[in-house]
Design brief:
Helix content is about 50%, strand content about 10%. By secondary structure, the protein is α/β, with parallel strands linked by helices.
C-alpha cells in the first residue's frame, strides 16, 4: 500500500470534528484523486507527524486561532475551515473554505480555490495518464457538460434532440469510462479539463 501512495502530494485536515473531517476528506478525494489525505483531531497529533511534508493544511478556525504563529508563517499552505460564507467572519491573511454548505457549492468553492492558487494547473501534480487522455466521445462530452450544469435526463434529451434512453446510456458509459460514481466527481473532472466553465455549475 505504501508504494502506491509514495511520491503523491500530501494534504492534512486538522479538525476535532470527526464528521466534518470525514466529509471533507471524501470531497477532497473526489476533487484531487492524486492526493494522499491525512486527518488529525488536534494540532498536537498534526505537529508530531512532520507538518512540512504537506502541501496544504485544511484547518478548523479554532485551531488556527490557537496556533496563529505556526499557521501565519505558512499562510500560503493554510486553508481555514469556516462555518460561514460571510467575509467578516473570515481571517484576512488566509484562504477560507466554508464547510457549512451543500456539497455542490463546496466543490465549486474548492475548485475556485484550486484555480486561484494553481492557475492553469501550476504546482499541481500531473493527472494520472488515463485521466489526461480524451476518452469520451464528443457526444458524451456534451452530455457530461449538461449533467454537471444541473440538467436532468429529460432536459438533456430535449436539448440534444436524442431519446431519453440514449441519455441514460451515455450517462452510464461516461461514469464507467471515467470510473466515477457521483455527479460531484464528474463536475470536478469537467471543470479541471475545461469542458465546463466553473461559473456554470
Amino acid at each position: 500500500m505504501e508504494k502506491i501512495t509514495a511520491g503523491r502530494p500530501k494534504v492534512a485536515i486538522i479538525d476535532p470534528n470527526t464528521l466534518a473531517v470525514l466529509g471533507l476528506k471524501q470531497v477532497l478525494q473526489n476533487v484531487m484523486p492524486i492526493m494522499t489525505i491525512d486527518t488529525f483531531g488536534s494540532f498536537t497529533e498534526f505537529e508530531a507527524a512532520n507538518p512540512e511534508q504537506y502541501i496544504h493544511y485544511f484547518v478548523s478556525m479554532d485551531i488556527v486561532l490557537q496556533e496563529r504563529v505556526f499557521f501565519s508563517q505558512r499562510n500560503r499552505k493554510t486553508i481555514v475551515l469556516t462555518l460561514s460564507l460571510n467575509d467578516m467572519s473570515q481571517l484576512r491573511e488566509f484562504h477560507s473554505l466554508c464547510i457549512n454548505q451543500p456539497e455542490k457549492h463546496l466543490i465549486k468553492q474548492l475548485l475556485t480555490l484550486a484555480q486561484h492558487a494553481h492557475g492553469g494547473g501550476h504546482n499541481l501534480p500531473p493527472m494520472p495518464n488515463i485521466l489526461e487522455q480524451k476518452i469520451l466521445t464528443d457526444r458524451e462530452i456534451e452530455v457530461m457538460s449538461l449533467i454537471v450544469q444541473g440538467y436532468i435526463n429529460k432536459e438533456i434529451a430535449d436539448r440534444l434532440n436524442i431519446g431519453l434512453s440514449t441519455v441514460v446510456t451515455h450517462r452510464k458509459n461516461i461514469m464507467d469510462k471515467l470510473g466515477m460514481k457521483s455527479v460531484s466527481a464528474l463536475t470536478i473532472y469537467a471543470v479541471m479539463h475545461g469542458y465546463v466553465d466553473i461559473n456554470k455549475i
